[in-house]
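Today's session is about reading a structure prediction critically. Students often jump straight to the picture, but the first step is always the sequence itself: look for stretches that repeat, for charged clusters, for runs of hydrophobic residues. Only then move on to the predicted structure, which in these notes is written as discrete structure tokens rather than atom positions. Here is the chain we will use throughout the hour.
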Amino acid sequence: MRQVVDQMRRQMGQMGSVRLGICLLAILTFVFFAEESAAQLSNPTGQTTNQKSLIKSGNSSQTATGGKNGPTAKPVPHRLIRKSQSVLAATLQPIPLDASKPTPSTAGSPSPQITGTTQSQNTSLSNQTVPIGAPTTAPTALIGSAATTTITTATPNTIAPRSASTGTTTFAGATTPAAAANGSSGAITFPGGRSISNLASEMPGLSQLTSPSSSSTPSSPPSSPPSSPPAPVPPAIGASPTSLSFTAQQGGSNPSAQTVSISNTGGGTLSWSASDSAAWLTVSPASGTGNGSVSVSATTGTLAAGSYSGAVTLSATGTAPVTVPVSFTVTAPLATPTIGLSPTAFSFAATQGAANPSTQTLNITNPGSGTLTWSVADNANWLALSPASGTITTGTNPVTLSVNTAGLLAGSFTATINVTASGATNTPQAIPVTLTLSAPSTSSATLSWTDSTSSGVAGYKVYQATASGAYGAPIATLAGNVTGYTSSGLAVGTTYFWVVTAYDQAGNESTYSNEVSKSIF
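Below is the predicted structure for this chain, in token form.
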């Protein structure tokens, strides 16, 4: 028993004395009840009314039927027995004692002995006196194999008389084998019997207390088997933001580009690629390694007003792709009228003194949206515009241009037509106008005079000269009562002179009238 305690102390290491005492008390209590149970199971009737069935060692010369002056014990069932048994056998193997234990003086071979008197059934274990010597150096393995004890074999329902000298009862048929003493160490060796290892197999709780390490040094806890290395963590794609949205006006400029940040949220190395799913969508760059970013652009182009959807897909080997949805809203243009003009310039030509040039037309349109409210004006007195204002949403508004050359000398003239419209994106607009007035190649002069008061006048003669008084033959003879004449074919840049005479039926001619002149330019 001391060996068990020593082995437990070595195993428990730094366990306190309180814990050790509790364990020792538990072991002793268990051994006590084990011995008592074994004895009762060996002979259910081997218990008197005033004495426990404790094993007493006596002289080896005693026989199973040879009692000394002892009355026959009355069979009383043990308190642990629940039913009768026909044949029972039990073996008990106490822990070997130290060789230095003093040899008992009883004649015959010495054997371990528990001394005591008649006890009640509730006598505590502390009232028994168990002589125990110093522990031996035998290995712990002797607990289960080398240690021996007294074996008691009993025939059921047979009890020998109790010895008067020792107060013990020898069961009929029981034999007490002699113990062998070790000559060198003095240790006592008992014949083999029931080992504690058998008890431990029947009571699993005891095996934890009776299997200390053979080494005095506490054994190290068993090392766990080496674990396999963890599986490598694959890369994973992280994208921020998780969606994009663009807005632009139809026919307007493209919206600003946006950025998607890419990160590796897993392990290993992330080698990614980026692609788009729409013609109006552009992604750059198309690939990369590790953390990075891509620029996403939307192009308005010829898209009509409306909503469009696309996506940017980020892919990488060994991981699931990530899709970033992209929405593009194209709004209709604002209601902004625009001045449309055709033609954008005008030119007129005429001859001095001749008829005015033909009219021309200015066409005003609205290529924008909404309603165009316009007005026109010019800065020349020889130019006229009609109408001067109007409104238009679709179609064409015509404006007529008229030129009047009266009083103008030969030469070139310029003017400007200004077109304005409130709210128009291109107001005002200016249209240039030019007029070229040419001098005639020949000219004419019209003469007029008063009718003569003389009687018998038959007509008039007209004289023309390029110098004053240098008249020759008349250029025209007019018969009758005529008072006017037009001279044509006059050269430009020349001054002409004219006189008129009257004549009668006889051919007589009056003197020259007063002289008139005209310079042709």
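Discussion point for the tutorial: The chain has four helices and 28 strands.
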